[in-house]
Design goal:
alpha+beta, Butyryl-CoA Dehydrogenase, subunit A, domain 3, 2 domains, six-stranded mixed sheet, 8 strands, 50% helix
């Protein structure tokens, strides 16, 4: 299994990074322009997973990690899975079922302009039709508009069990991107913030914190790429590798986001600064197709 990026993958990642930097800066995450989704469609990010394009899962994961680094709309995850495993075209919202079935409530993230919602029902990916007038509002994560739907509409399973692994893989990629963003933000701040006439990054305690964020990202990225390759090769252990990538990416995203707030000190605790955006996105992603304990431990049937 070759984990080295080829020239086409490197070029695709470079284009993605340049476009995201110019069109989805992190400081606009809580107030993205209304035309952003149209621009994402024009660039092809919403349809890049369609079978006709023939992109590998590993390539998709790398691109989605770059999109996740800029806190791209979470609807991209659901839209990408729907594009590969269903006949539905157009924007698909991300659905999270209430953990308490008796509540009968469905959480829909990024619902604006979406005709369908996609999420896990049990261990299978399923889709449901959304009302035409459903709109979302900013909640805890201001970069991910949320709407509630009661009662829960009927969901239709996609059928192919690989769709659940695909959903996990792309959620892990978004989480890795979130970890990357927190790492970069912490390191950049440690270079410019001064105490005792020195950048705070000069002090050993801060060096260790920033180094740990880089290590977590490197470990999660390696596992993510391996999981994508295993899924492409239809490896018998693909479910384990995807679950491991999901676990490591979630851990990296949450711990790096916390470390980023710590490096920023007092300003890191305020709403006007940006570190909290990574932490809120990291926590949201941890609920999207989380790794199953029995798969990681090799106990799944």
């Amino acid at each position: 299994m070759d984990l080295t990026l080829d020239s086409e993958q490197e070029a695709l990642l470079a284009v993605t990074a340049d476009w995201c930097r110019d069109n989805m800066p992190l400081d606009q995450a809580r107030d993205r322009p209304a035309a952003l989704w149209t621009e994402l469609e024009a660039m092809g990010w919403t349809a890049m997973t369609t079978p006709a394009l023939g992109l590998s899962h590993a390539t998709e994961a790398l691109v989605f990690a770059e999109l996740g680094r800029h806190l791209a709309p979470v609807g991209l995850i659901a839209t990408a899975v729907a594009a590969r495993w269903s006949d539905h075209s157009g924007k698909t919202a991300l659905a999270l079922l209430d953990p308490y079935p008796e509540a009968g409530r469905l959480r829909i993230y990024d619902p604006d302009g979406a005709g369908n919602a996609l999420g896990l029902v049990g261990h299978m990916v399923a889709m449901a039709v959304l009302p035409a007038d459903l709109g979302g509002v900013a909640m805890l994560d201001p970069s991910a508009p949320l709407a509630h739907l009661e009662p829960v509409p009927p969901f239709e399973p996609l059928g192919d069990p690989r769709s659940a692994l695909h959903l996990q893989l792309l959620a892990a990629a978004f989480a890795l991107g979130c970890a990357d963003a927190a790492r970069d933000m912490a390191a950049d701040y440690a270079r410019v913030r001064e105490q005792f006439d020195r950048p705070i990054g000069w002090f050993q305690a801060l060096k260790h914190i920033c180094s740990d964020t880089a290590v977590r990202c490197a470990v999660a990225r390696s596992q993510l790429l391996y999981a994508g390759c295993a899924l492409d090769a239809d490896d018998a252990d693909a479910a384990f590798h995807v679950a491991a990538a999901r676990q490591l990416a979630d851990q990296a995203a949450i711990e790096n986001a916390r470390a980023n707030i710590q490096v920023h000190g007092g300003i890191g605790m305020t709403d006007e600064a940006y570190p909290h955006l990574c932490l809120k996105r990291a926590h949201l992603l941890s609920f999207v197709a989380p790794a199953r304990r029995e798969v990681i431990l090799g106990e799944a049937a």
